[in-house]
Amino acid sequence: MIRVITYGTFDLFHEGHYRLLKRAKELGDYLIVGITTESYDKTRGKLGVMDSLITRIENVKKSGFADEIIIEESKGQKFSDIKKYNIDIFAIGSDWLGEFDYLKDYCQVVYLERTKDISSTMLREQKQHIQRIGIIGTGRIANRFVPEAKLVSGISTQGVYNPHKESALRFAKKWDINAYTEKNRFYDEIDVAYIASPHETHYEYIKEALLHGKHVICEKPLVLHRKQAEEVYAEAKQRGLILFEAIKTAYCPGFQKLLGIACSGSIGSIRNVEACFTKLEKTSSRELVDQIYGGSFLELGSYVMLPIMKIFGNEYEKLEFDTIQGDNGLDLFTRVSMRYPMGIATATCGLGVKSEGRLLISGTQGYIVAEAPWWKTSYFEVHYEDAGKVDKYSETFLGDGLRYELSDFLTMINDREESGFKLTRGESIAIAGVMERFLTENRRNM
Ligand code: C2G
What we know:
It is a single chain. The chain is an alpha/beta fold. The model has no long low-confidence stretch (mean pLDDT about 95). It is built from 14 helices and 19 strands. Strand 1 (about 5-10), helix 1 and strand 2 (about 30-35) form a beta-alpha-beta unit. The chain is globular. Helix 10 (about 225-240) runs antiparallel to helix 14. Helices cover about 35% and strands about 25% of the residues. Bound molecules: [cytidine-5'-phosphate] glycerylphosphoric acid ester (C2G). [cytidine-5'-phosphate] glycerylphosphoric acid ester binds near residues 8, 11, 46, 96 and 118. [cytidine-5'-phosphate] glycerylphosphoric acid ester (C2G) binds next to strand 1, helix 1 and strand 4.
């Protein structure tokens, strides 16, 4: 008798799960299905699981393929289950390709092709739909996005669009998703667009996706003109769609905690915010070559503006830029100085000058400091006049952190919330306004 085992969360049970179980069963005579507990999903960083463990067990049972159901509670369990249940074959979807090769010493490992097209009747009967996400662009951030999306329940990566066929095909093959070069088909087969194309193309893609009735999550900077930001948010609102700027820091739990403490009065009234983010890039990189849309501020400005806008708001009294330019005129290093009625702020970023990346928030009673990479906040300290007293805070930050923004985006879609509080529409529009001023003052030919 051939004994097969497979594992999963099986949340919002859909045909991808059904087909996986069916083929796993066909591999042998006896199928054991391990279903993750809520606490295991939490530790492995899977967010947004909707169905209770009991519902998920019921759904797997109903499929009729499982001879036995067990509960998966911890990371090392797969190995001991294989021994305990005398397993011949471990099966899992191809979205995990390679990740379970370490089990090959103990049994056969089979990756079954994941189901690329989730849709149709089975989903419509459920109150909560799986959102099929379509990626626009195939660059670095899009590559980080796919594995993170896998860890947010309720989302399925449907495919990628790129006008360059070769790039679309390469990306799709790498991630086992569909490739689209034809826009109408792409929009027909998705519910949500994730825009990760070059900055200057965001505005047109956002409008197009909204026009097709799709929710949009767009990489930062959303757009580079204040009026464009106002226009696209108004358009989304009018159509009852969610438009979401993906500044990942805004959604990570550590940054939320830091803001909560900063604004709770524990350091008195806040009078100064300093945020710095530098990342050295090769002089041949797109960021340091693209004459119009390259440069430090367009690349990193959203991160350093974020804490300032969160703490002091959108209504600054004065804003000034100082930049160090490279031979081609692009900014290698930029400092923004701002004045507000209640305090002052400095945002610094650089692709060609290295500095100590730090977030410092100073108040009348003490200060908060988060060292680099504070944009993926996992630790910060609160200091007071008494140097011996330091409060230390830590928070988990998992993977590349994109799962947090994605999970909030999904909640907004499901709850029909127009504007989240972690990054408000007003803040996003104000950041677009700062980008516009930067471009105008640097006399770029826009
Ligand atoms: N699956 C699939 N096609 C989809 C979606 C999921 O074939 N479109 C497969 C997955 O690859 C997995 C199973 O269905 O084999 C369950 O998927 P999930 O519920 O998303 O669980 P997952 O997070 O993949 O569990 O220990 C847990 C496992 O390691 C992974």
